Amino acid sequence: MQIYLDTANVKEIQEGANLGLIDGVTTNPSLVAKEGRSFKEMLLEICKMVDGPISAEVVGVESEAMIKEGRDLAKVHKNIVVKVPLIPEGLRATKKLAAEGIRVNVTLCFSPTQALLAAKAGAWCVSPFIGRLDDVSSDGMALIRQIVTIYKNYDYKTQVLVASVRHPQHVVEAALAGGHICTMPYAVFQQLVKHPLTDIGLKKFLADWDAMGKK
Ligand code: E4P
After folding, report:
1. How remote is the CA of residue 185 from the centroid of ligand 1, in Å?
2. Which of 122, 124, 128, 199 is the most exposed place for a label (fewest CB within 10 A)?
């Protein structure tokens, strides 16, 4: 499973990239607004840090505006994936951009029928938001399993990008469900490696080694 960071914060992205395990980055208008800086300048900086797909979202809601923005964003760097919302105008824009060879991440997916339409429109990936579904007492992970099955049944090449991840257990379940990509906040990424028994075990190994040296 590919691991992406879900942030527009370049400090976090650099720290994550230093480990050499980050395959890509997703941003959205809220994450970009939080940083308070030029969008394109930020994208270029991110593209220099991570050599993988970097999602950048359009803010237009009419297909023509989305197509124009999408073409523009795709010109920023070869690794940019254009993110469009899962509304009828977004699907129209996806079809057009995909036909031009621009990779599209269809975002704000909350149902299997939406995901089916995204695949039919030629999306490079679809982003189901599992945390936001869990927040309203729905089963976010059940949606991932449904989409993975539907795409397998018809051999759609669209990848399932598990988004709105809130904790490491979401990552485990995304991998078990066969999600192709999982994007997560940096704090969740940091938690993936941690285990208290690893720390206790290492401390004991080193203490035993030191004690032997003193004999
Ligand atoms: C990623 O592409 C999404 O924009 C993001 O995962 C949304 O996460 P949130 O529900 O925590 O805002």
Report:
1. 9
2. 199
Q: State which ligand 1 atom lies nearest to the alpha carbon of 166.
A: 11
User: Tell me, what CATH number does 192's domain have?
Assistant: 3.20.20.70
Q: Report the domain count for the chain.
A: 1
pLDDT in tens, 58-103: 999 999 999 999 999 999 999 999 999 999 999 999 999 999 999 9
Q: What is the pTM (predicted TM-score) of this model?
A: 0.96
Domain with 71, as residue range(s), is: 2-213
How far apart are alpha carbons 206 and 141 in whole angstroms? Answer: 41
For ligand 1, atom 4, which residue shows the shortest CA distance?
28
Q: Structure tokens of 49?
A: 């840090």
Q: What is the DSSP string of 23-77?
A: -EEE--HHHHHHHTS-HHHHHHHHHHH--S-EEEE----SHHHHHHHHHHHHHH-
Q: By C-alpha distance, which of 103, 63, 106 is closest to 84?
A: 106
Strand partners, 129: 163
Strand partners, 109: 128
Among protein residues, the one whose CA lies closest to atom 8 of ligand 1: 164
**Quick one: residue 128, left, alpha or beta (phi over 0 = left, psi -120 to 50 = alpha)?**
beta
User: Which residues belong to the active site?
Assistant: 83
Ligand 1 binding pocket mutation candidate from 32, 129, 170, 181 (most atoms within 8 A of CB): 129
Rounded Cα distance, 128 and 17, in Å:
24
Is 57 near ligand 1, meaning CB less than 6 Å away? no
